[in-house]
Amino acid sequence: MLIRQAHVEDISQLLDIEHYCYDDPWPREAFEEEIGNGVAGIGMVAEDDGIIVGFITGLTMAQELQVHNIAVHPDYQGRGIGRQLMEAVDALGRAGDYKRISLEVRQDNDIACKLYMSLGFKAVGTRKDFYGPGQDASLYTKELTAE
Ligand SMILES: CC(C)(COP(=O)(O)OP(=O)(O)OC[C@H]1O[C@@H](n2cnc3c(N)ncnc32)[C@H](O)[C@@H]1OP(=O)(O)O)[C@@H](O)C(=O)NCCC(=O)NCCS
């Protein structure tokens, strides 16, 4: 499994994964805002034999890395790829001297919440109706300077 930086040319493959993983998928423009965003954008993909099977995207805001999207193709879930993508962003943050990583996750997304907690993230707040009426988000952060 190769973890590498995402390029604008990868977006069509990311859209396929996005559609498999979410009922309310991001449009192409949302990916372009992050992957095509020079130094402010974060974008990494997991590639297996030349095929993209997962991705993580986000933006840098001052001293924080904000993860906005992570998904692994359903056929490849549960093989450690999500963890590797999160670890790649962690390494990026440390190399760039960022203070923390933050992300929002649906409160009922047990698999994702478990992954983030196992990587040292802490739930620090709730965003009510973040994903629509009755669909709250938990805000998770990981301090990069504390370790
Ligand atoms: C969340 C997601 C990115 C995780 O990626 P993944 O490659 O499947 O995860 P990994 O294989 O790296 O597993 C990481 C941890 O997640 C948890 N996990 C993964 N699959 C699981 C499953 N089927 N049941 C329970 N826990 C599971 C485990 O805690 C695992 O840790 P472990 O390796 O110590 O067992 C992936 O499930 C996905 O794309 N889901 C749909 C989109 C989504 O919900 N994204 C998150 C939005 S915030």
What would your notes on this structure say?
The protein is α+β, with helices and mostly antiparallel strands and 147 residues long. The chain has a single domain (2-143), classed as 3-Layer(aba) Sandwich (Aminopeptidase). 29% of the residues lie in helices and 35% in strands. The protein has four helices and seven strands; from the N terminus they run E-H-H-E-E-E-H-E-H-E-E. It has helices at 11-21, 28-35, 81-95, 110-118, and strands at 2-5, 41-48, 51-61, 64-72, 100-106, 122-127, 137-143. It has a seven-stranded mixed sheet with strand order 1-2-3-4-5-7-6. Strand 3 (51-61) and strand 4 (64-72) form a beta hairpin. Helix 1 (11-21) crosses helix 2. The longest helix has 15 residues, at 81-95. It is globular, with a radius of gyration of 14 Å. It starts with a strand and ends with a strand. The model has no long low-confidence stretch (mean pLDDT 95). The structure holds coenzyme A (COA).
Helix-strand blueprint:
Elements: E1 2-5, H1 11-21, H2 28-35, E2 41-48, E3 51-61, E4 64-72, H3 81-95, E5 100-106, H4 110-118, E6 122-127, E7 137-143
Parallel strand pairs: 4-5
Antiparallel strand pairs: 1-2, 2-3, 3-4, 5-7, 6-7
Helix pairs in contact: 1-2
The chain binds coenzyme A.
Residues 21, 70-72, 77-83, 105, 109, 111-112, 114-115, 118 line the site of coenzyme A (COA).
Please tag this protein with its features.
147 residues; alpha+beta; Aminopeptidase; seven-stranded mixed β-sheet; 7 strands; 35% strand; binds coenzyme A
